[in-house]
Amino acid sequence: MLNNIEIVLLFILAISISLVVFSTKLSLQKAYNISLITLSASFVFLLQDLGEIFSTLIQKDIFNSMLIYDSFSLLFILIFLLSSAFLLLISKEYIFDHKYFKVESLIFILFSVWGMILLSMSNDLIVAFIALEIASMSIYVLVGINKHKLKSSEAFFKYLVLGSFMGAFYLLGLTLVFIQSGTTSFIDLAKYISTHEIEQLYLVIVGGLLIMATLMFKISAFPFYAWSLDIYDGAPLPITSLMAGIFKISIFSVILRLFLSDYISLKDLYDPLIILASIFTMLAGSFLAISQDSIKRMLAASSIVHSGYLLIALSSIATIGDSASYSLVFYLIAYFLSSLGSLGVLSMINSKDDVTYESLKGFASTNPFLALMMSIFMLSLAGFPSSIGFLGKFYIFSSAIESSLTPLAILGALTAFISIYYYFKVIASMYFHKNISVLLTYSNIKSYIIIFIISFLVLYLGIGSSYFTYLPGTNDLTEFSKSIINSL
Amino acid sequence: MLDHILSILIFFPLLAAMLGFVVNKDSIRAYGITVTTVEFILSLWLWYAYDSSVSGMQFMENIELIPAFGIAYILGIDGISLFIIVLSTFITMIGIASLTDTKRVKNMIITLLVLEMTMVGVFASLDAILFYVFWELSLVPMLYIIGAWGGPLRIYASVKFFLYTFAGSLVMLVGMLFMAYFYYQATGEWSFSLLEWYRLILPESFQYWLFAAFFVGFAIKVPMFPFHTWLPYAHGQAPTIGSVILAAVLLKMGTYAFVRFSLPLFPDAAVFFMMPIAIIAVIMIIYTAMVAYAQEDIKQVVAYSSVSHMGVIILGTFALNVEGISGSVFLMIAHGVVSGALFLLVGVIYDRRHTKLMSEFGGLASVMPRYATIFGIMMMASVGLPLTINFVGEFLSLLGFYQQSHMITLLAGVAIIVGAIYMLSSYKKAFFGEVTKEENKNLPDVNKRELVALIPLVIITIWLGVYPKPILEPINNSVESIVQLMHDKAVTPEAKSAIPNLIKDDKLSSNMEAH
């Protein structure tokens, strides 16, 4: 008997492959509908697994313990499915309006989501690598689908070359870990690390460092962040959201699993590195974000800053362990909602050129609804109270304080302050300038509804109500984030 | 209904603001006036129902928001917050009633209603996070008011206002997280409830750091020297209504927070930092008075004089005794009424001449006699003339600080007298002498709408100046319990001696028990 996740995995795979087979016969509209239905049906189907904390190995006879399906991965899988379905809905007109979106593009989106699902379930270094590459490969192609635009092709090549290069580091690290420990499974590795002295672990440590470098690259953390600005900028907007919003979260899922299950006993060694990385990621991202003119580039740069916040949470996990990890999970949820929303609003603007602060001037008078939504997402990204972004930052800073990493918390507050500058410039441009904006927007009612739903979630989960007892609120989300950590 | 009156007071304006979107543009002003009047009457009802013999918190509401982290929706008022809430609803009502014809009047009224919600929320919340949420939310409507209706430099002014205050409050947020963490370490439970924090006695060294963190947030809001530079820009660019609310209510958030957070939470640190802060306050009083004297723009004069008076409030607060703190709380109310009125008056003349430069006026007393009279009364009140509202507050504040340091009080007292010079001289420039400018000869006097707004302010100014007891007594009761709490909590002997012990009669100690 197959369990739910296996059905979903096979279902998405089957749909993707059949789309590949019939790609020449299908219209874009049909392929779009099929992908959307696939994603949302899988989401709804998996909702029934919510509830009890569980942890099962997938097809133990075939895969041994390579794939694990637990509450932790379920949360991430749900996020991937939901946000990619939202993404398709929001950017519907964008996809149909830009001729370079073909049936194949949608197949690649499906494949990348499939890879991310696998990534969040992987319980083995090799499977994690394969899943990572499935997701990355699809995204490499998606970045370059606009082959007539120079910037897009440049982004594609940069990402492909750098990504493959960093992938090699992962393989090298994996080899080193395997040479010493004789295993690639997370479970066995954890046993090996905890039963051996540091002197016997040199290769495992170095290997872990190399793997960490690859993962840091994927989340665009210092010192591997330089690529992200050009690539996020060169990619079409829906793909940027896919990379910045969804893919990044999947990387964090594997980082958390690897870190909490294996390398937690070596935390003293890695902690200084993570702290340094988080400090410089926040600073570098802030400096990049301040100096941008284009909103898209600003959001790309600010996503680096958000990686920095997440690294604060990671370093607190290193110090006080599980009790801080829910702050990371919560922040991931907060971040995915706000970044999906803000990039979604951008992708609803029909403009040949980049949307800049200049061209947004007076946007509020021509399109009050989208301006309001954009403001909400900006407030949330900046961590303004009564939005989910505030609670996310709040949890991260308090776990930093709890693990006596106060300077990090203060620096985090400082970068949050800097971020006010570039996020509020957007609001100021939209509201305080008289120039009538010439920006046109797509008028797809579905996109508007989805944007509204996301902004509602941002506010509702930010206010943190347990007043409506029959509706899940922030507290339930917090408790849920706490409980899924236990399923690891 | 009385059980939830605070929630109603907070969310009624918000609800009204939401409904405001569907109200017709022509009737929005009437709608705004109605809503704020209802809100004001509700706050008066709150005052009526308030039991002024009890010093602790009343009308408490407690709903858990995020139990896992000890964040709750806790509301409650005592004598200190009661009158500031009444002041906020009153000033908003007056402000909307006197609102001149502006563009996008609908947006303006909706924004003001949202602002009213955040103001009442700040003064009613007894949970640090809830307080912080309202505190920050109040920035957004103000940012919008300055940014969308302001003068030519409005974007610079609004961004400066926002960045300054937000920077301060982020530091404050870190302080709050620390405080909650210490509470967690001491009790094993997370809590952001202020009343529970009150019970926590912290070691001195922690107090110093936390006091400093909170201080940055509050001092920028007040604004204390040298963080005051955002205020003249904000006032200079803001429309009249923005200045009125900013000066009358928003600045009080900072001084109120000192009384609510800094003093009872960190009594030793408050004693330790008393002298430095008093010196800053005196510098504030003298320096801004001198700057005000040099201004040519009448609105800037009022703006700087308002900073100057905030200095007296700070001085009174850090007297750390009942007279000083009661005086400073009273002065908050007084300053709200007087500076609100002064900004309204400046708005009146600005509407007629579209300039605020004093050199453009002169001899207005003969052209606009009623206007000159009201302006004169308010200016006297601002100077602190006896039998006006400001006098009571200033006198008590200085009396309170006199017990801590004669020298500083003397300096501050002299500075206040010197401060009268700039007010009188600007009054002279604008109102006396010959009517020099042709345009000024036919200026209409204050109209009915303006009178409706100004007359109540004049009445309050004189009434509370002559007979301050109805307000002073409840304030005094609540302040006594705070001072007693500080005395009991203080760790160091210096702090014990600096903060008076009030337990002499049984009534008070039984109040403490109930608290």
Keywords:
heterodimer; A: 488 residues; mainly alpha; 2 domains; two-stranded antiparallel ribbon; 22 helices; B: mainly alpha; 23 helices; globular
In brief:
The complex is a heterodimer of chains A (488) and B (515). Chain A is mostly helical and 488 residues long.
Quaternary status of these chains? heterodimer
Cross-sheet strand order for the largest sheet of chain A: 1-2
**Poorly predicted tracts of residues of chain A:** none
Low-confidence stretches of chain B: none
Largest sheet of chain B: 2 strands, antiparallel
Structural class of chain A: mainly alpha
- The percent range for helix content of chain B is over 70%
Order of helices and strands of chain A: HHEHEHHHHHHHHHHHHEHHHHHEHH
Protein architecture, described:
- The complex is a heterodimer of chains A (488) and B (515).
- In chain A, strands 1-2 form a two-stranded antiparallel sheet. Chain A has a two-stranded antiparallel ribbon with strand order 3-4.
- The mean pLDDT of chain A is 85.
- Chain A has 22 helices and four strands.
- In chain A, α6 runs parallel beside α12 and α13 runs antiparallel to α14.
- By secondary structure, chain A is mostly helical.
- Chain A has two domains: 121 residues; 224 residues, no CATH class.
- Chain B has 515 residues and is mainly α.
- Chain B has a domain of 195 residues.
- Chain B has 23 helices and two strands.
- In chain B, strands 1-2 form a two-stranded antiparallel ribbon.
- In chain B, α3 runs parallel beside α15, α4 runs antiparallel to α5 and α11 runs parallel beside α14.
- Chain B is globular.
- The model of chain B has no long low-confidence stretch (mean pLDDT 86).
- At the A-B interface, α19, α20 and α22 of A face β1, α5, α6 and α7 of B.
Fold topology:
The complex is a heterodimer of chains A (about 500) and B (about 525).
Chain A (H helix, E strand, L loop, with lengths): L3 H18 L6 H20 L7 E3 L2 H4 L4 E3 H20 L1 H6 L5 H19 L3 H19 L6 H32 L4 H10 L6 H17 L7 H9 L2 H25 L5 H24 L4 H26 L1 H26 L1 E2 L6 H4 L2 H4 L1 H15 L5 H15 L3 H27 L7 E2 L3 H19 L10 H13 L2
Helix pairs in contact in A: 1-2, 1-6, 2-4, 2-6, 4-6, 4-12, 4-15, 4-22, 6-7, 6-12, 7-8, 7-12, 8-10, 8-11, 11-14, 12-14, 12-15, 13-14, 13-20, 14-15, 14-19, 14-20, 15-18, 15-19, 15-21, 15-22, 18-20, 18-21, 19-20, 19-21
Chain B lengths: L4 H16 L7 H22 L8 E9 L4 E7 L1 H19 L7 H20 L3 H10 L1 H11 L4 H34 L6 H5 L5 H18 L8 H8 L2 H26 L1 H6 L1 H21 L3 H20 L4 H32 L10 H4 L1 H15 L5 H14 L3 H26 L16 H19 L2 H21 L3 H6 L7 H9 L1
Antiparallel strand pairs in B: 1-2
